[in-house]
TrEMBL record:
Source organism: Lipomyces tetrasporus
Keywords: NADP, Oxidoreductase
Source lineage: Eukaryota, Fungi, Dikarya, Ascomycota, Saccharomycotina
Similarity field: Belongs to the short-chain dehydrogenases/reductases (SDR) family.
GO MF annotation: an example: oxidoreductase activity, acting on NAD(P)H, oxygen as acceptor
Gene3D superfamilies: NAD(P)-binding Rossmann-like Domain
Name of the featured protein: NAD(P)-binding protein
Keyword NADP: yes
């Protein structure tokens, strides 16, 4: 083999090595530099005109940004919509009903009083053409710009033994939780790429994508959430060169309409679920606020392809 001949593996396939032995031509992206933290302290030493003030909350701010939250009519999605609005974004919640909930109406008024705005668009994430049209319409209202997307729409599906799990139910859970998250991310990423916006996509997975919920026969849900975690990694790889970050968030047991469907029927389940994490309780929707604020903002600019588990420690036992 000469120095320029591609190296071949044991199957005889070319590994496409360049002459320098590097797999791809490297393009060095500049490391961002900001007057925050130690840099700010050093600047303050030499520049008397430099304003000394805490900048940590500015890093979390999303002024002038546009955010989309699917499943935003209630539960975790509505909480995420309010967080992003509190950070200064104009937020669009997407969900199935033609008219949003009473909670949503209260959130609209609350957000308005905070100086931001919250809007509602009915759509179905499991239908590629439908959700992509909704995303295009939102973009068109905002000069093509979407900066943040939280794909939170999801369903649990009913409990069945794996040997009896009905095909129709399995497909439905996958349609919403897996395909729907993909169609949402795909439509938003397209807009971000077109506009060259280094946005943030946050895919709501679940701890059920990494561990199986003890005593709960949720084969379709668990499978779909595993897919979301891997989807985030895969999207992060493809979209990283465009500066777009993609992460997944994996909540543990949180009291919402989704979990109420189980807890209302079997109240003893709450104590059982609580016993499965070291904090000894299930979580509340507001306990996901920080992670969403962080991933959506410049406070997390070097985080992509990660799965952030917020489970009260459920997965460490
Ligand atoms: N609650 C928990 O314990 C928990 C734990 C881990 C992960 N999650 C995930 O968090 C996300 C939010 O769940 P939640 O607990 O707030 O449940 P929820 O039922 O309160 O909210 C889910 C929302 O998604 C919407 N939705 C369902 N199908 C849709 C579709 N095809 N198109 C558009 N919207 C659709 C629903 O109408 C609903 O408003 C889900 O992805 C869920 O799997 C929840």
């Amino acid at each position: 083999m000469t120095a320029c001949e591609p190296e071949r593996n044991s199957n005889g396939n070319s590994a496409q090595l360049s002459t320098s032995g590097v797999r791809f031509p490297l393009k060095l992206v500049a490391v961002p530099s900001k007057d925050i933290g130690v840099n700010a302290a050093l600047k303050a030493e030499t520049d008397p005109s430099f304003e000394v003030k805490s900048r940590i909350f500015d890093e979390f701010a999303l002024p002038g940004q546009v955010a989309i939250v699917t499943g935003g009519n209630g539960g975790l999605g509505l909480e995420f919509a309010i967080v992003l609005a509190e950070q200064g974004a104009k937020v669009y919640a997407i969900d199935l009903p033609a008219t949003p909930s009473v909670d949503f109406a209260a959130a609209v008024k609350y957000v308005k009083r905070l100086g931001s705005s919250l809007h509602y668009r009915p759509s179905d994430v499991s239908k590629q053409e439908v959700i992509s049209a909704t995303v295009r319409e939102i973009a068109a209202e905002n000069d093509g710009k979407i900066h943040v997307c939280v794909a939170a729409a999801g369903i649990l599906g009913r409990e069945f033994d794996c040997t009896d799990y009905p095909a129709e139910m399995f497909e439905k859970v996958m349609d919403v939780n897996c395909n729907g998250v993909f169609f949402t991310a795909q439509a938003v990423a397209k807009q971000m790429k077109q506009q060259e916006i280094p946005g943030s996509l946050i895919l709501i997975a679940s701890m059920s994508g990494s561990v199986t919920n003890r005593e709960m026969n949720w084969i379709a849900y668990n499978t779909s959430k595993s897919a979301v975690i891997q989807m985030a990694r895969s999207l992060a790889c493809e979209l990283g060169p465009a500066g777009i970050r993609v992460n997944s968030v994996s909540p543990g047991h949180i009291r919402t309409k989704m979990t109420a469907a189980v807890l209302d029927d079997q109240p003893e389940m709450e104590a059982f679920w609580a016993s499965l994490n070291p904090l000894g309780r299930i979580g509340a929707v507001h306990e996901l606020r920080g992670v969403i604020a962080w991933l959506a903002s410049d406070a997390s600019t070097f985080c992509t392809g990660s799965d952030i588990v917020v489970s009260g420690g459920h997965t460490i036992w």
